[in-house]
Every structure is written in structure tokens, then in C-alpha cells.
Amino acid sequence: MDISSTGLRVLRQIAESGSFTAAATRLGYTQSAVSRQAAALERSAGTTLFERRPDGVRLTPAGLTLLRHAHTVLASLAAAERELTGAAPQAELVRLGVFLSAGAAILPAALTHLAAADPRITVTTSEGTTPALVRALRAGSLDLAVLTSRPPHRPLDGESPRLHVETVADTELVVAVPSTGEFAGRGTVHVDELVHARWIATPSSSSEPLLGVWPGLPGRPRVVHAARDWLTKLRLVAGGFGVTTVPSGLAPLLPPGVSLLRVDGAPAEVRRVLVARLPGRPAPAITAVTRAIASAV
């Protein structure tokens, strides 16, 4: 096969982004340029590498095989570049992804544990939804990810081989409400009382979940504010502008004016906190970061 490093980078970005358009944006290319690179990869490989679906693009088994080798090739090229320029890193680097509320609830404590246990390890972080982080793991853009799952806790994706996953904690989903007003002084709320609530939620798409609305809420939720940042959501709640769902582990970080209520009349919503990575023997630095996350949780 005659495949360029540019083609391998395009392959990796398509795998992470889930679409040609998003990959083009991330790489600074036009969509047509990405499409041409994808077609050239398939011609060189002599097989179909990409599955075009209504919800985006996924790699075929052959595409995943090529991606696995692309990780090795691109890592070797990066190492060669560092050596040639004299910029070889002195510390071990771990690229960590975290789900949207873990940045506040887990990440600072985990980094503090790690700094005390092994200061030679450098961690870079990025935030995203669980589906986006799983794609980034598969694409090789992340070494490790803190994710969540809900019962019945199926595999995180349908790709093979399966990701290596460790459970570090279970946390209950609760509703954040203003401390004053109709819910003042209460510890619970019935699910029927939430049907007409004003919700503050993370925008959803065909491939990303709606975060911030109670799951299984009867009828169509009324989302009045869309925000990804948890501090923004909670500040809006404190101001009396709506309600949102949060993991109970965020309780110590609530701003003034916000209370947490458990939901009656509906099954408990328990979220599992997971640490995931590609299968295989992990590097010592990845093991150390995993231990730090478990200690923080």
C-alpha cells in the first residue's frame, strides 16, 4: 500500500469526529479535500474503509485495522520529529478525556493525587460527551477517558476489540433546583411535577445525548436554555431560570442558591463512572493516572 501520513491523519480524524465535515473543520481542510483523501485511502487499501450512515461516518472492520496501524506510524513520526528538533519530552504524557461534569467533580482531585504520587507524569485533558470520547479513544487521540454509562451498562460501542473498561464508582442522578420558590425546603420531587418544568440542558444531536433533562420524563421536555458548561447551568438554576439534572457527586461544588432533589415516582437513575482505554497492556503512566482517578472518586 502507498499511503501518506496525511492520509493516516485524515483517517484518524474521521474516526474521532464521526463525519467528513467535522474532520475537515478540525484539520483545516475543505470537505472535498477530506473526501479525496478518504477515497485515495480506500483505493490504496483495496477495500472499503468507511461506512456512510445517516448519523455520520464509521470505520469498517478494515478501517479499524488500518487505524490501529496508523496509531503506531503517526506516533513513530512524532517521535522522530521530536528527536530531530531536540524537543524530546522529559516527562511521560497521558492524554485524558473526561465527561462533561467530571472536570469539576473529579479532575482537580485526580491531578492533585497524581502530582503527589508521580510528578514525572504530564496530563493533558479535553472534555466531551461519552460518545465523542469513545470515538477519540478509538482514533488514538486520547490515551484514557473518564466516561459514564447508565443501566443496563452495555458495551460503550459496537467496535471490536472492545475497550478495556474499569468501574470506579456509581453516582445517583438528581435534579438541581433553585433554593427559593416552589421547591424550597424540600428533599424530593415527584416526576409528575417535572413534566412542565423549564429545563437547562446540553444541546443534543443524532449522535450525542441530551444532558440535563430527567430521563424518561413524560412528554416532550421544555428546554429554555442550552448550555454545555455545568457552572453556567448551575448559575442559571441559582438565578431561578430553570432546573437541570446533575450527578449527586457535584453536591460539594454547588453555587449558593441551588438545592438538589431526589426524584420520586420513577426508577432511580444511577450513573456508573468508568475509566476506559484501548485494549492491551497499559503503559505505567496510564496505570498511574487510572489509580489517581480512582483515588479521587
Question: Per CATH, what is the topology of the largest domain?
Answer: D-Maltodextrin-Binding Protein, domain 2
> What distance lies between the first and last C-alpha atoms, to the nearest angstrom?
46 Å
Number of domains: 3
Q: What proportion of the residues is helical, as a percent range? A: 25-40%
Q: Report the total helices.
A: 9
Strand content: 15-25%
Fourth CATH level, the homologous superfamily of the largest domain: Periplasmic binding protein-like II
The average pLDDT is: 87
| Annotation, overall tally of beta strands | 12
What does it look like?
The structure is a single chain. The protein has 3 domains: 5-85, Winged helix-like DNA-binding domain superfamily/Winged helix DNA-binding domain (Arc Repressor Mutant, subunit A), CATH 1.10.10.10; 92-168 and 272-296, Periplasmic binding protein-like II (D-Maltodextrin-Binding Protein, domain 2); 170-270, D-Maltodextrin-Binding Protein, domain 2 (3-Layer(aba) Sandwich), CATH 3.40.190.10. Strands 3, 4, 5, 6, 7, 10, 11 and 12 form an 8-stranded mixed sheet that branches. It has a two-stranded antiparallel sheet with strand order 1-2. The longest helix is centred in the N-terminal third of the chain and has 25 residues, at 61-85. It has 297 residues and is α/β, with parallel strands linked by helices. It is built from 9 helices and 12 strands.
